[in-house]
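Record 1 of the preview.
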Amino acid sequence: MTTIAVVSAGISVPSSTRILADSLGSATQRRLAALGQAASYDVIELRGLAHLVTDNALTGFPTGALADAVRRVSEADAVIAVTPIYTGSYSGLFKTFFDVLEDGTLAGKPVLMGATAGTARHSLVLEFAMRPLFAYLRADVVPTAVFAASEDFGAGSVRGSSLSDRIDRAAGELADKVLRRGTALPADPFENPTPFEDLLRDI
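->
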């Protein structure tokens, strides 16, 4: 069973960030199922961990529900990370949670990025702020990032063919990375070259 940790940094109730996170999680689950891989997604709401995240910043030790959330991210086969955009960047709670993770936790792990904001003018945050963050964490980030503005939501769900198409494309990319992860790479013919003197012997 493939497990996907979905990290949602939305703080309002209801939260458009959570709606997008659920949409990405369920879309990835469907794409994996279509490829013959059973999967489940597990949503980690950072809103309820805010005090523990602050405590961790002071003590350096995650405890309780925060320690459990860190474990779930660490053990997951892939991560979907969704944040609201504040003042031109990801939220402080979102960044501080990923600061809690031990070095190497996301190394090589497939990650899908998502973000929400009031208007589409914030959409580039995915590329100039979030993608560098996950590159630093050495995550294997899918090419398609998904941004949703307030106008993309209606009746408690995502709407609009353009957003739905992006969600489906990103989910497909994540499913593909999950299935390919761990596949043995072909041997590098230059890794263990034949010594030159051995080559001369065969002449």
